[in-house]
Amino acid sequence: MPKLEIKNISKTYKKGTVKALDNFSVTLTSGVYGLLGPNGAGKSTLMNIITDNLNSDSGKVLYDGEDIKKLGKGYRSVLGYMPQQQGLYDDFTLNRFLWYMSALKGLKKKEAKEKITSLLKTVNLTNSAHKKLGGFSGGMKQRALIAQALLNDPKILILDEPTAGLDPKERIRIRNFVSEIAEDKIVLISTHVVSDIEFIAKEIVLLKQGKLVSHDTCPNLVGEIENKVVEVEINREELKYFQNNYRVSNLYHNDDKIIVRLVTNNPPKDHKSTIVKPTLEDLYLYVFEQGL
Ligand SMILES: Nc1ncnc2c1ncn2[C@@H]1O[C@H](COP(=O)(O)OP(=O)(O)OP(=O)(O)O)[C@@H](O)[C@H]1O
């Protein structure tokens, strides 16, 4: 079983003024890990360090007990990375793009041909192989980028916001696909979208201002806010007050009343509140919504 140990990683930018990662440690084994955190939490920085595209200021990343810096090429050969940026290869046809990436990854011709044919099928893009990437929809581009990350049959697959900008149908397709291929691989997915990982992740890693908040299975994390999620019926005029004073994770209208869903340690005493089952989205609000 592959093992990736991230040990005491710190990283600053701008001569130390911006702390992107602060003594971050976690150990990953095979399965899907969801990396959750708000904008600027340090997710991309972490992924760039794990993929050896960026040097940390301190700390180490070990793959099966060996420092990735020492493994060098050997590490790259087990790594698949889908970065955030799109549009780099818009003039390439998908086929040319995959051949180009195969060459960069050092695949032999025969190997590349077989792999490209099978991956095009897996990501359902065989019929678009001779079209230019520039004309692809967001979902097609994302699938093309996932395909290139899988060319070398990686043991570690790093996906930086793989569903950004996708419609729900594409999102579900990518999610199911990632879940399918995760067996015997370490898959780390960063996302803002809780539903991308809620049901497929073996563990969720919560990152806040460069620090690890916690990492655990989804049921365990959600269990931490058992009894802290309530639904309360309020009048319209009260909504502003509740929005200013509580973490409101949902609201809906019921005739002339509003039902608000609150994630709170102190449910309102002057209203009847009903305890409801927490979700990962509630936990996200609980951890990342400041000041309430
Ligand atoms: N090249 C850089 N130079 C200076 N500051 C940077 C650089 N890259 C990132 N940062 C800063 O480091 C912090 C972490 O950024 P990072 O991109 O890793 O977060 P993120 O969680 O991936 O955010 P997002 O969800 O918006 O992609 C932020 O404060 C960001 O502004």
From TrEMBL:
Q: Where is the ABC transporter domain?
A: 4-234
Source domain of life is: Bacteria
Which Pfam families has this protein been placed in?
Answer: ABC_tran
- What is stated as this protein's family in its record? Belongs to the ABC transporter superfamily.
The keyword Magnesium is assigned to this record: no
- Which keywords appear in this protein's UniProt record, sorted alphabetically? ATP-binding, Nucleotide-binding, Transport
- Its name, as the record gives it, is ABC transporter ATP-binding protein
What PANTHER family does this protein's entry cite?
Answer: ABC TRANSPORTER, ATP-BINDING PROTEIN (PTHR43335:SF2)
Q: Which GO terms describe its molecular function?
A: ATP binding
Under the heading CDD domains, the entry gives: ABC_drug_resistance_like
